[in-house]
Write a structure and sequence with these properties.
Length: about 475
C-alpha cells in the first residue's frame, strides 16, 4: 500500500483495499524503521495520526468521506499545530507546544487528512540545505552524503524516502522548489496571498508562502485545493475564488508559449542541468508548445536584493523571541537585559544571528536608504521584468537550481556561496509570482528540477503544464535505489 501517490492512496481507500488506520500504521512503522538514516522528522505525531485515521475511517463508513479523507500528510515544523511541539527547527522553540492550529493545518484537518508528524527544516526557514536545523541536518535519500535542500528539507527527504506520501512546505526564496528539485519531487510555491500565512511562523512576511510538496502535479493540485483561499486571519491573503486545481490538469498544451530567460542559462549553471532543462523544453515543443528566448535583465540582482529584504524582515519578526512570553529562556538571569541577551544568544543558531545582524544593520538610521530602500527599488525592477515577459509568454521555464544536491558541509563555511544556490528561485518571491519545480532528469545519480514560472494566480495553468509533462515522461516516477 505504500509507494503510491496521494491520488493512488485515495483510490485504495475508496475501494476499501486498506483502511486509513492501516495506512497510518504502515507509514508510522516505516518512519520508525527508516528515519534514523534521513532525520526527516523532528516530531512524529503517532497518537494524533492514529486518532485522525480512526475518525477518517468512521466518516468514510458514514458516507462522509472527501478525496482527502484518511490521507497521511507530513507538515513542515513551521506550521503551528495545536498540542504539538512546533519548533521551526530552533532551540528557541524546542519547548513550544502550540496552543492553536495554523490555518493550513486546520484546513487539512477539516478535509480529513492524517498528520504523520512535523518535518525537519533549517532554523526559522533560513537556509538552502537543512544544515542550520537545531535538530541536525536531514539527509537526501538519493545519496545520504548529500543535502536534501532547504529550508523544507525534512519534508522533501520524508517524501523521497517513502516516509510520507506528501508534505507541506514554505517558500520564502526557494524553500519548496529547491528541495523538490534535489529530491526528485513536485513542489509548488503559490502566488503571494493564495495560501494563508496565519500560524506559519514568520521568517520574511512579504515573501513567505506555504505550498505543497508531492510526488506528482496531480497530488500537488489535490493539496492546493485544501490549502488555498482567503483567510480573515491573514490580511495579506487574497479574496479570490479557488478553482478546482485538479479540473484542468489534462488540458492540451497546443499553442502554449514558453519563455526561456537567457540569464538563467549563464555560466554559473551546471552544463548537465542546462542540457536536461533544454531537453525538457524540447519535450514541451513535442506537446505543442512554442519557445522563445526572453530576458530578465535584473536576475543577478535578486540575490543581493533578497539578502537585504529577507534579513530585514526577519530581524523584525524574530524580535518577539525574547524569553518573556514563550520559548527558550536562559538560566538564572541577573536582570532583564541579561535575560534578553543570553536568551537570544543561546537560543538562536549562527545563521539566524547572522541574518538578524544584517537585517538590523540594513534597517538602521543612516543605512536604511542605502540598503533597505535600494533593495526594495530593485525588487520593483525585478517584478517589472517578469510582468513584461509574462505579457508575451504563458510560462517561463528554466532550471530550479544551478547545481544538483551538494554534499553536507560543502557550502557551510561560505554563506555567500550558499546564498548563490538560490539565484533562480529568489526572484519569484520578490515579485510574488507562483512557481513550480518538477523532475526533469538525473545528473550523476542526483535529481534535476525544471522550474516553471507563471503569472499571478496562474497555479491552475502551472499544474496543467507540469501534469502534461508527467504524462509524457517518467522522471518523476524514479525512486532512490532500494526504495
Ligand atoms: N535559502 C533561502 C534563505 O535562506 C530561502 C529560504 C526559504 O525559502 N525559506 O533565505
Amino acid at each position: 500500500m505504500l509507494n503510491k501517490t496521494l491520488a493512488g492512496l485515495a483510490k485504495g481507500l475508496q475501494q476499501g483495499e486498506f483502511s486509513s488506520v492501516e495506512l497510518a500504521q504502515a507509514y508510522l512503522q516505516r518512519i520508525k524503521n527508516e528515519d534514523s538514516k534521513y532525520n526527516s522528522f523532528i516530531t512524529v505525531t503517532e497518537e494524533l495520526a492514529l486518532q485522525q485515521a480512526a475518525a477518517a475511517d468512521a466518516s468514510r463508513a458514514a458516507g462522509n468521506a472527501s478525496i482527502m479523507t484518511g490521507l497521511p500528510i507530513a507538515h513542515k515544523d513551521i506550521f503551528c499545530t495545536q498540542g504539538v511541539r512546533t519548533s521551526a527547527g530552533s532551540k528557541m522553540l524546542d519547548n513550544f507546544i502550540s496552543p492553536y492550529d495554523a490555518t493550513v493545518i486546520r484546513k487539512f484537518n477539516a478535509a480529513g487528512s492524517v498528520t504523520l508528524g512535523k518535518t525537519n527544516m533549517d532554523e526559522f526557514a533560513m537556509g538552502s540545505s537543512n544544515e542550520s536545523s537545531f535538530y541536525g541536518p536531514s539527509r537526501n535519500p538519493w545519496n545520504t552524503q548529500h543535502v536534501p535542500g532547504g529550508s523544507s528539507g525534512g519534508s522533501a527527504a520524508a517524501i523521497a524516502a517513502g516516509l510520507a506520501p506528501a508534505a507541506t512546505g514554505t517558500d520564502t526564496g526557494g524553500s519548496i522548489r529547491q528541495p523538490a528539485a534535489f529530491c526528485n519531487l513536485t513542489g509548488l510555491k503559490p502566488t503571494y496571498g493564495r495560501v494563508s500565512r496565519y500560524g506559519m511562523i514568520a521568517y520574511a512576511s512579504s515573501l513567505d508562502q506555504g505550498g505543497p510538496m508531492a510526488q506528482t502535479a496531480e497530488d500537488a493540485a489535490m493539496m492546493l485545493n485544501v490549502m488555498a483561499g482567503m483567510d480573515p486571519l491573514d490580511s495579506t491573503s487574497v479574496e479570490r475564488a479557488v478553482p478546482d486545481y485538479t479540473a484542468n490538469l489534462d488540458a492540451p498544451l497546443a499553442g502554449l508559449k514558453i519563455g526561456l530567460p537567457k540569464e538563467f542559462f549563464s555560466a554559473s549553471l551546471n552544463p548537465e542541468i542546462a542540457a536536461l532543462v533544454r531537453a525538457a523544453v524540447t519535450e514541451y515543443e513535442a506537446l505543442g508548445a512554442t519557445v522563445k528566448e526572453v530576458s530578465l535583465p535584473n536576475t543577478a540582482l535578486s540575490v543581493p536584493a533578497y539578502y537585504i529584504v529577507a534579513p530585514a524582515e526577519a530581524s523584525s519578526n524574530l524580535s518577539r523571541f525574547d524569553g518573556v512570553r514563550y520559548g527558550y529562556r536562559c538560566e538564572d538571569p541577573t536582570d532583564l537585559e541579561d535575560m534578553y541577551k543570553r536568551t537570544r544568544g543561546e537560543g538562536f543558531g549562527t545563521e539566524v544571528k547572522r541574518r538578524i545582524m544584517v537585517g538590523t544593520y540594513a534597517l538602521s538610521e543612516g543605512f536604511y536608504d542605502a540598503y533597505y530602500k535600494k533593495a526594495q527599488q530593485i525588487r520593483r525592477l525585478i517584478q517589472q521584468d517578469f510582468v513584461r515577459v509574462l505579457s508575451e509568454v504563458d510560462v517561463i521555464m528554466g532550471p530550479t537550481t544551478p547545481t544538483p544536491a551538494f554534499k553536507l558541509g560543502e557550502k557551510t563555511s561560505d554563506p555567500v556561496e550558499m546564498y548563490m544556490e538560490d539565484i533562480f528561485t529568489l526572484s519569484l518571491n520578490l515579485a510574488g509570482l507562483p512557481g513550480m519545480s518538477i523532475p526533469c532528469g538525473m545528473s550523476n545519480g542526483l535529481p534535476v528540477g525544471l522550474q516553471i514560472i507563471g503569472n499571478y494566480f496562474a497555479e491552475e495553468k502551472l499544474l496543467n503544464v507540469a501534469h502534461k509533462f508527467q504524462q509524457a515522461t517518467d522522471w518523476h516516477t524514479l525512486k532512490p535505489a532500494g526504495l
